Structure formats: structure tokens, C-alpha cells
Amino acid sequence: MPSRPAPSPPTTVPRVWHPVGDLPARVYWRRRLVALTVLLAVLGGAGWLGLAMLGQRDGDDAAAVSGTRPLPVPALERVVPSLSAVATPDPPALPTEAEVAAPAPGPVAGGPCTDEMLGLEVRTPGSAAVGSKPTFELAVANVSAVPCVRALDKGLQEIVMFDGAGTRVWGSNDCFPEASSDPRTLAPGEVVTLPIVWGGLTSEPTCTAPRGAPPPGTYVLRGRLDTKVSSDASITLG
């Protein structure tokens, strides 16, 4: 019967650290050192590569946050602006005591009469016969406290008549305009009456339409002295 090979001795820690073989022990120890060195180099290289990749990813994330990708704006900032962006108006300057005590500038004596310094009124006889030639008056009064100068030229005087529906019936400057130069100095409270005669016929600004006597009824008269306009007065034709 052939003989069986002798079983190999069991592997134990002492046998690993103290191998037994045909070669000298230093050969086996040199092999172990080479294998251990290679293993440590592989583990060290893998660790360094992992740290490098982690550092690069952190750098990319930081660059993306600070450079290309804007930080999200909080919801409250989108609705309510920051206080630094709200412009605060400067408070209005308060008047000084001298400005408060100083009287408001009034009309200058001897200067021009403004519309606010004048009163203007149309005076009528109240009634007139159809086709008659009544005389109207423009009453100009200086209602200020100082004398002033106003031009009372005939070209600046006008009375216009309207019917009850507001249609223009007649104007004193339509067919017979007059021109004159008449600057007047009006004393405080002084009233100057300027007579204007109506021929009793209708007219329009070009005086080209047929003219005729307006029918009986109540009409409105409105006066003007350049830019000053009077209140309305009435006349009844019968």
C-alpha cells in the first residue's frame, strides 16, 4: 500500500512570524517587509487621493456659492425692502419767526391794476322794447386799498348777449369795433362807468350773417374788460 504524505502542520501565529522553509529566515523577513511596504503605499495613496477629491469638491461648492450661483433671497426680503433701500425724505424747513411775522406782500401803489384789484359789473335798464336801442354800462371799480393804473381802451371793452339756452345773440365788438388808448389811474374805491349802446339787432363775430331783432324774452348779458370778466346780468325784451 502506498504511503500517504504527512499532513502539514497547522498554521499558527508563531508559524506566520517564524516561518520554516528551505531558505534562510532573512529572505522571508525581507519578503514580508516588501509586501508590507507596498500595502502601506497603496493605502497611503488611496487616502491622499480621497482627501484631494474631497478638498476639490469643497472648493467647487464654495466657488459656486460665491461666484456663479446667487444666494437665495429670503421671502421677507422679496416683500419688504431693506431699511437701507428706503429713502427717507428730509423734513420741511420751518419758517423763521421773521418770516412768520412779515406781512404778505400787497398791491403796490401806482402799479398796474390786476384783475384781483378790480370789480366789474354790467348795468342794464332791466327791460327794453324789441328793436329798441338800449344803453348798457360796464362799471369798473378799484376794490384795492391803493391807487392803480388800468387800460380802459374801447377795444378792451365788450358786452355779449345770450338767450335762455346759452346761444350767443349779440356782441358789442362784432360789427362796430372801436379802438382807443385810455389808461386810467383809479383811486381806491373809485368806479368808472363805460357806456355801450346796443343797436337792437343780432350779430356774430364776423358780422356776415343776416341780422334781425331777437324775439321777446329774457336774455343774459356778460361783460369783459380785457381779461377781467363780470358776473351775469339780465334784460327782458318785450
UniProtKB/TrEMBL annotation:
What keywords sit in the KW lines?
Membrane, Transmembrane, Transmembrane helix
Transmembrane regions listed in the UniProt entry: 33-54
Q: What is this protein called?
A: MucR family transcriptional regulator
